[in-house]
Specification:
Blueprint lengths: L5 E7 L8 E7 L3 E10 L4 H14 L10 H18 L7 E10 L2 E7 L3 E6 L2 E5 L5 H7 L29 E7 L4 E7 L1 H4 L4 H9 L4 H15 L7 E9 L1
Helix pairs in contact: 1-2, 5-6
Amino acid sequence: MRERAVGYGYSCQGGRPENEDSYGLADYGDNYCAVVADGLGGHGGGKQASQTAVRFLSACGERGTLPTEEEIYRAFAAANEEILEKRRDENHMKTTAVYLCIHGDQAIWAHIGDSRLYHFAKESLCDYTLDHSVSQMAVALGEIRREEIPGHCDRSRLLRVLGDEKFKPEIHGPARLQPGRHAFLLCSDGFWESVTEEEILLDLCKSPSPAEWLKSLYLRIMERQGEEHDNHTAVAVFVEI
């Protein structure tokens, strides 16, 4: 019998006038779900969009069985529909989103935009999402390396988000989790652009809990952030199989 998944999250306004990020953690007994969303559009619309994404996606898993790809897609679609209904124009109320559900020794995740998920096992990075961005395309074309994305000129140009008439979340899984400790990190771009994957892994190896892991990474970000640093949000989940 596995230990129950445990999670911890935080969201920081950074140097921006408003925090448009949102996150959610939901423990349904057999299912443990986590969501991070990064709102776009400003003037309150980004925050409303990210909250909408978190509300719909956090509920995906409440039935207690591992959500199917179709169920996850429907949750993204429902969030997208509500955002489209409430937006004032095509540039108002958009958001990225990344979702995780753990059920027993299985995990399934999905994302849209450049909010990321990292999966660590046996003290190594074993899987991660790829941004839906122009910069990620530059990586695929061999023009830049993945670690150069944070400084790339087109880093903020996203190809997929919630709040567009045409949207396409990318769904991964279900993945079978092998025996041992697994750690998942879901985060907005304001988080991952300020810490390297090597630093994320280093702090993970020293952390007995999700809270300690995120607190260590938060301190790194706070040491580096400037006056106009972006909102930064993260959720960490540990599960022992």
